[in-house]
Write a sequence for this structure.
């Protein structure tokens, strides 16, 4: 920066209050391209047809305009797994052949002229889980791949800009050094040193001139990162930030007027972040909320001694103890003045990674929680990684709370609590398996929710902060007014968990009988029944292979369900199964039991003459109140009715409500996995559990949590 020039950054924090009518833009299986005419009182946006409009999950991520008949768009084609380039010639969009590296994606494109266009991204390295930078160039006739450096094992270029044909910049991330800056001088791409720290990330870049370039992103401490190129070197420029802030895009009006936008979360504030760099403007006052507690952690591996050292710092708070677990197993409890912990690494860690959880506590209450993964390498790795690394945490995901509800015969051993696993919030291997991203909760962690809190519902109650008590499988069967009491326990446990962070977003993941409890809880919330405390933080509920239309009840059924399938021989009264049959007979249509049965009439103290008690009416009311309800079922799951599943196919309808279409907020989706065996319980049990690790279900749940339609699965139509 030039000496003597007084510069400043002005921060504008736009707080978006999370209300039930918040607008969400969901992903669709079709891509929409819109074009706007010059602005007039009659102007409008129109959908423009394109070759990939009906290709599922294909996406365009960057665009550049050269003239009215020369526009480029880039992204990826999910059907082939390759990058995608499309061109507008003034009348139509067409796909243009690109080098199509395997499992590649293009994130950004820039143009100097019609025969000088650059696009950047990343591509998978064949036969590995690693990826390298991808740069392609258009010379007016064809796209060609241009050699580019890849310093680390995981390399991504997220943005590209050009000052001239021999002065092009690209930025991103590499696992070896962090923030990645690369330059094209007219003959080759080279890395350029930047004042970064490891794990810093650059998301966007813009060039005003050859000696005036800005790049923005996020530091490894989740703070804003702004860097400037003055023609000879990159320097970090101080930028205002709140707790957990990131900048996603930058643009410039002039050297004295630069804008950057992103996201920030601090205390009870959650919203969009806009920063402006100026030289002479009067600063705009910025809000000054109290900073939230923040736990920053790093892990380093000494390959000579095979020791992992966990270093951690608690910001904006104090703690009297720290708890550390690794790969879901208890490691240590340290005093509040501790700053590090060293141990021998696991040579054969699951999937080649050690996943650490560090929790800061004050008077046994969790103040802050963080997770970090460390890939095992070379000397200390006897079992090389077989899975890709977790993606960076989604900004603000520390404010997401996932509540896991298991079904019949689930259990929570006492020795898995007290901070030993998942920092005391419970561990259900059906949903959550540290190091394995195939289970639905682990999938969410692996895809951006590593900093979120996951708690397991307990059939016997909870302690402080919603930490569950241990329970044996018998508690999933016995007790008078079984479902009503579980609804009350669930409500109380969630309220305890959100008390320390009222700004939290709650998501419920429930399987089997757990889904019936979850739907009953939603019914109690939206119809104000049984003294359940309102929970405006509840955003969505995912019911996975849950018989929300009830089950049959006879001796043969009990033999298969309890003795053969689940082997929980401590149960005796089967009150839950009796109540499930009560739910079964509330259905007014045997071909649509899930939607016409009523958890309100069967379990809760609602008005039996109320015509809005049916499950479908309940989920419609939930959507009106801002709660998305998602049902997913395996069409080959006959566990609940192993006898007569061929002669009584209406049983399948117990798992489904009526899907009301994309963007409706009420979804019922299906898949088929396994071979149904009407005479044996074991194959059907496996089919019943498949929903917890089926990839398309994982993707659909992720979409629901993101506020999108679950297009990964097709709608169920009875």
């Amino acid at each position: 920066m030039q000496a003597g020039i007084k510069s400043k950054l002005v921060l504008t924090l736009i707080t978006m209050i999370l209300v039930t009518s918040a607008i969400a833009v969901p992903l669709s299986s079709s891509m929409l391209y819109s074009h706007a005419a010059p602005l007039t009182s009659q102007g409008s946006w129109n959908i423009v047809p394109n070759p990939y409009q009906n290709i599922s999950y294909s996406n365009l991520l960057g665009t550049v305009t050269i003239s009215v008949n020369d526009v480029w768009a880039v992204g990826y084609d999910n059907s082939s797994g390759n990058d995608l380039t499309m061109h507008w010639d003034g009348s139509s969009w067409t796909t243009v052949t690109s080098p199509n590296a395997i499992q590649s994606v293009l994130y950004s494109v820039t143009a100097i002229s019609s025969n000088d266009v650059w696009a950047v991204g990343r591509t998978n390295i064949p036969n590995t889980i690693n990826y390298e930078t991808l740069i392609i160039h258009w010379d007016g006739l064809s796209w060609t791949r241009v050699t580019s450096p890849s310093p680390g094992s995981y390399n991504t270029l997220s943005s590209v800009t050009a000052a001239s044909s021999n002065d092009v910049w690209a930025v991103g991330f590499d696992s070896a050094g962090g923030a990645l800056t690369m330059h094209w001088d007219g003959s080759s791409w080279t890395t350029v040193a930047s004042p970064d720290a490891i794990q810093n990330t650059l998301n966007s870049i813009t060039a005003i001139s050859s000696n005036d370039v800005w790049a923005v992103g996020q530091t490894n401490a989740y703070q804003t990162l702004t860097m400037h190129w003055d023609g000879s070197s990159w320097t970090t420029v101080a930028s205002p930030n709140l707790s957990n802030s990131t900048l996603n895009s930058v643009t410039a009006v002039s050297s004295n007027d630069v804008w950057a936008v992103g996201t920030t979360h601090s205390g009870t504030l959650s919203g969009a972040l806009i920063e402006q760099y100026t030289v002479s403007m009067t600063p705009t006052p910025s809000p000054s909320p109290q900073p939230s507690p923040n736990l920053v952690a790093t892990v380093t591996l000494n390959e000579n001694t095979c020791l992992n050292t966990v270093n951690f710092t608690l910001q904006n708070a104090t703690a009297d103890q720290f708890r550390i677990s690794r790969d879901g197993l208890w490691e240590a409890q340290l005093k509040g003045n501790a700053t590090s912990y060293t141990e021998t690494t696991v040579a054969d860690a699951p999937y080649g990674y050690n996943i650490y959880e560090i929790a800061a506590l004050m008077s046994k209450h969790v103040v802050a929680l963080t997770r970090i993964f460390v890939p095992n390498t070379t000397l200390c790795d006897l079992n090389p990684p077989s899975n890709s690394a977790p993606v960076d945490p989604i900004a603000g995901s520390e404010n997401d709370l996932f509540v896991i509800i298991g079904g019949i015969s689930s259990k929570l051993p006492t020795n898995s609590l007290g901070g030993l696993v998942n920092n005391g919030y419970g561990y259900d291997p059906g949903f959550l398996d540290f190091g394995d991203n195939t289970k639905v909760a682990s999938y969410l962690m692996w895809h951006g929710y590593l900093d979120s809190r996951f708690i397991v519902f307990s059939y016997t109650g909870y302690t402080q902060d919603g930490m569950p008590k241990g329970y044996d499988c018998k508690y999933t069967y016995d007790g008078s007014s079984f479902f009503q009491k579980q609804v009350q326990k669930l409500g109380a446990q969630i309220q305890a968990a959100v008390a320390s962070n009222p700004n939290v977003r709650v998501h419920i993941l429930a399987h089997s009988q757990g889904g019936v409890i979850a739907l009953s809880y939603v019914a109690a919330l939206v119809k104000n029944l049984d003294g359940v405390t309102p929970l405006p933080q509840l955003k969505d509920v995912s019911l996975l292979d849950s018989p929300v239309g009830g089950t049959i009840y006879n001796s043969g059924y009990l033999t298969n369900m309890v003795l053969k399938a689940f082997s929980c021989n401590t149960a005796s009264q089967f009150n839950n199964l009796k109540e499930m049959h009560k739910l079964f007979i509330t259905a007014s249509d045997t071909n649509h039991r899930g939607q016409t049965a009523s958890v309100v009439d069967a379990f809760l103290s609602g008005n039996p003459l109320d015509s809005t008690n049916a499950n479908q009416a309940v989920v419609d009311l939930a959507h009106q109140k801002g709660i998305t309800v998602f049902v997913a079922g395996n069409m080959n799951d006959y566990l609940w009715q192993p006898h007569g599943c061929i002669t009584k196919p209406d049983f399948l309808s117990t798992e489904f409500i009526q899907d009301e279409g994309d963007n409706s907020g009420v979804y019922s989706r299906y898949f088929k996995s396994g071979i149904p065996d009407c005479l044996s319980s074991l194959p059907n049990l496996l089919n019943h559990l498949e929903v917890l690790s089926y990839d398309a279900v994982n993707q659909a749940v992720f979409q629901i949590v993101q506020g999108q339609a679950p297009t990964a699965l097709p709608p169920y139509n009875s």
In short: Confidence is low (pLDDT under 50) at residues 1-41, 382-386, 417-421. The chain is about 15% helix and 35% strand.
